[in-house]
Batch of 4 targets.
Target 1
Amino acid sequence: MSTRISLDDLDHKIIERLGHDARVSNREIGREFDLTEGTIRSRLKRLLDNRVIRVAAVTNANRLRNPILAYLWVEADSAADIERVAESLASLPEIGFVATTLGRADVLAMTLVENGNELTDFLHQTIDKIPGVRRVRYSLGQNFIKHDYRWCALVD
């Protein structure tokens, strides 16, 4: 179980450095900050153990053949169904983001598809079969203008 920890300037500098290149060695970071490799290693261990950061590979959507970002605006049958619908969506490997929302819909989910047929099949064969889903509306992202990988959420 993780607890909240205070982050100091060094923690923030390490996180920022890893945001530019997560494969950089502890020794290299230590050299850049005039610290020992052991200091950096222990700081990273603390950040990882307390789930402040995690190391993950992020897909560069621009490298897909024809990436289409689909925003799925999901309405639940009732307020009691919202969390269950959100959890069901989050469990799907095709879905990369899920949030409950106020306003336009009850849940927003995002997925990458390569064509309209793939999206249609996914909506009808998977999303529509989730208990508690009343309706799904979707929007398609046309062009990726900015995608800051550092916004990838830590969810667990």
Target 2
Amino acid sequence: MDQVTPASASKTSWIPDGVYVVRFRSALDQSGGVVWVNNGRAIGGDSSYYYDGHVEHDGTGPVARMLFARHRPEAVSVVGEVERFNVVFAGRVEGDKYLLEGRMDEEPRMKLTAVMTRLPVTP
């Protein structure tokens, strides 16, 4: 299995630990899921895909590196009929939301945005 790992252990998470609702949008579709951030690690999923990655600050700004992998065979993602794909997001904080914009490694012309909002629960 492909696994996203932080490039350096000295990089710190820019999204506080917690559980987040995430809304994804592309030119093709929109969807949502849940992500748990813990010490820079971000894992989660929805009814069709699971997410695995890291949120970090790379020296130039906040980034999230995520792998999306299908667990329901007939599912179609917001980027189309894809079994698995990787996205590197650049991010910023706006109020209580974390806004991310990224592109698929496998199809750099495919733009994907995500908005994360923290849930009032303790992991």
Target 3
Amino acid sequence: MTQATQSQQGILLTENGLRQVLALREKQGQDLCLRVGVRNGGCSGMSYLMDFADPKDIREDDDVFDYDGFKVICDRKSLLYLYGLVLDYNDALIGGGFQFTNPNASQTCGCGKSFSA
């Protein structure tokens, strides 16, 4: 895992994670932010959510983390489970993709896309 781009608390993006998210956003052709959250489901009880959102859809109760102008947003209920999350990207052929390192997870499934807390 590469070094996180900021030492702030909350949701941390590594340099590789930020680079990949910005590349994906560029393909969308819009100025979007990244919404991260959780939902019930997955093989371990909770699944990670990650999608682009229009900045005008940021709600008053969202927490916003700024990475040199790029915003990562998370609703407060999800942040209870994601506080301290490190979002990384690995381009390996096997096991590559976005990697979630969640200090709140008591158990993580084999694919790394769901967890229990």
Target 4
Amino acid sequence: MEFPLLHATDPTTCISGKMSRISRITSSIFRKHIKPFGLSNSQMSLLFLLSKRQGLTQKEICDILYMEKSTLNRNLKRLFERDYASKKDFPEINITVNGKLLLEKAIPSWNEAMNEIRSLLNENGEAAVDSILYKLKQTTS
């Protein structure tokens, strides 16, 4: 049996695969730095968003972070359990004082992760990431 399409296809050229590898590499660097705070990358992103924009609904959070609803629910559950986020004013979600205190402690480590990635990417690499994100967001808006 022959598989001509399979034989002719080079999966190393797959853009989705490349983006996934980029995501896993950067996530690994961030995890290394924020591990002491017991937060995942997604949870830290949620807390940062909630610290900057009060009273967001779950749908708004999903739309802003391009996050699946199930992923959001799983992460919010953990943040609610640890009193880092509140659904007291549901459907609005807010960061708690404990969440802000945790972020305040974690930001120096987050900055270390940012510096490590920036040193690997250099200015041109970071600009390329920004450009890719901008272009992809334009097509999904």
